[in-house]
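Case study 2.
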Amino acid sequence: MMKSINPATGEEIATHEPLTPAQIDAALDRATATSATWRTTPIAERTALLIALADAYHAHRDRLARMATLEMGKTLKSALAEIDKCVAAFRHYAQAGPAMLDGGSIPLAAGGKADYVWLPIGPVLAVMPWNFPYWQVVRFLAPCILAGNVGLLKHASNVQGVAALMQEMMGVAGAPEGLFQNLPIRSDAVAAIIADDRVAAVTLTGSEGAGRAVAEQAGRALKKVVLELGGADPFIVMPSADLDAAVKQAVTARVQNSGQSCICGKRMIVHADIYDAFLDRFSAAMAAVKAGDPFDPATDMGPLSSEEQRRTVQEQIWKMQAAGATLIGGEALPGPGAYMTAGILTDVPTDPALMGEEIFGPIAMLFKAADIDDAIAIANTIPFGLGSSVWTTDEAEEARFVRDVQAGMTAVNQMLASAPEAPFGGVKRSGHGRELGPFGLHEFMNLKSVYRAG
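Prediction:
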């Protein structure tokens, strides 16, 4: 039995019975049958469905957002913004997507040419987390539909209400049965689905451990896999930066979604010349963050997703304190709900084992860098490389950061945020492959060459 528990109150919302093996088998049969027809469906019909999905999400915006707030604790205004982002992604692939599917022709030195075309590959399994429960799925689903593939969703156990609503929205939009199926299953059922010949590929957003397991299972089955595994992203601030803007965005990075975002800066690496000024402003701004009822418009930050998640963050803090770090704020709040205040860890040892801890909560790690070389060295010390944010008005410094910070994405003078138009993904242990943009669309397509004489 899977349970949805409101992290703001600790109260049980609903229980969900996992699918039986027979039900999973039937779902895979439906996916296979639908794949056979959807792959040849005209692109105009695929884009029409994407527009219908955008309309459905917009029409049910409040209801969808409330479920996310109830199940994982994000503020209602954050949940509403997440729905709006999903609507934008559906519309983007409907409008810009057909051009992404255009093939081309390459002349051959020996004569003739090779045309190339993009073709669907079949059912794709998505294993998705709870932190952005709609957006994480839509950034796989929208290109999946456009490509002519079909989707299977294994969502996190604590957001099964969200998963069920996503399934419902497919019906509202008039999607063919089997085009997208929510599979309420436990993690131990995933390996058999990946191994099944009816599944063509798998995409996962989650922990490093989950990524290793899924990559190993996909490797045994010789199937394509895309992994987004998070990280402890650097947020580098240099003396030429607009300090007030950097501080404001650093606070947002740490308290947005209660600090439970893969790509928001977690390690604030600040040049020694401005370190004290940054810390003064940053600590005051973090202390002013209001944690409370996620349905209250005045709330800045809701609870963490669960009591278990709050305990994990606390244990990470204690480990760093034992190694010599100093905590400012970051306390668990009494009473019901998995609440805690925003906090900062200073004097954290530059030990990769410590700095590589992804604190999935409203806690920042603060480091002092002697110069740009030191800042880059601190940024690259850890084994992860998802995103990064750099703050400088010096063009030479910007070029160094873009070239030398080991990350799949870098934001300049802004907090990193994903967008439907741009490729999303990391390097090193943050995973491989890309989502979004044309690159995410092509990850799960067959690039087929057609050789022609003359």
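Residues 130 and 156 are 6 Å apart (CA to CA).
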